[in-house]
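Mods, move this if it's the wrong board.
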Amino acid sequence: MSSKFFTLALHVALPVAIHATIDARLVDSQGSLSSVGLLQVSTDVGGFGSVCGANQASADVICRSMGFTSGTVSAAPCNFYGGSDLCGAPGSQVAMSDLKCSGSEWTLEECSWTAPSEECLTHAHDAIVFCSNGNPQGESQGQVRLIAQDGSPAIEGQGRPEVLVHGSWSPVCATGLSSGSPAVLCKAMGFSGVVGSARCQGEECGSIAPNLAELACSGNEGEPLACPHESGDDVFCAPSESVVITCAGDGDAQGRLTKETAPQVA
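Not the wrong board. C-alpha cells:
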C-alpha cells in the first residue's frame, strides 16, 4: 500500500483514542476505498488506523455499517491477499487489536478490543475484510461466487465456485459436471470465458460438502440453476469432490448478479 496514503507515524505502542462514533473503511492496494481490503477505523490521533486481528463476526458489523449485507475476515495474511500486499505501511497507525463482536451489534462501538501491542506495529497481523451484498430484489437464487483457497473472494479468477441454493452457498460437485458448466459459472459472475476446470485438491476443497451435483449445462444458459442438476437430499458429495475453475477476463467473484442475469425492473 502506498505510504503517501498515511500521514501519521507511530513507532511505539501508545494507546490510540478511538472516536466516540467509529467510522470504518476498507482500502485496496492502491489506497482507494473498496469493498475488499485493509480494515481501518477512525481515531482521535489523526485519521484512520488499521486493526490488528478481528474475529469473523466483526466483519458483518463492519460491512453493515458501510451499507453491505455481510462480510468476512480473510484467513490469509495481509501481505498476500489475492497476490497483493495489503498490510498497512510501516510506521502508520494501528488503532486497535483483537477486535471482537458477536455479530448482533449495529456499530463497532458495541464491540470489544484492546490496545495494540508492539508486535501489532509491524502490521503483519492487520485484518483484511471483504464485504458483499445480497440481491436487493430478493431473487438471489442461483447467484455464483468464486472462493480462493484461503476462503476469500478469488479475485484472480481461479477458485471453488459456489452457488446460492435455497438460501445457502453450495460448492459444485465434480460428479456429472458437463463440459459447458464451467463456462456458465464464469459467465454468471461476469467473466468473459473459462480457461479450465478440475477436481479440487487439498485446502482448495474447503470444508463444505457440495449441495449441487450433476450440473449439465450446454454453455448457453445465463445461470447454473437454469441447467439440469441435482440438489438437496439427492446429492452425496464430499468436500474433496468439489470442482475448481479458472475464469478468463474480469468478473465479480463476490456473488453479485451481473447485468445480464439480474432481474430487470420494468
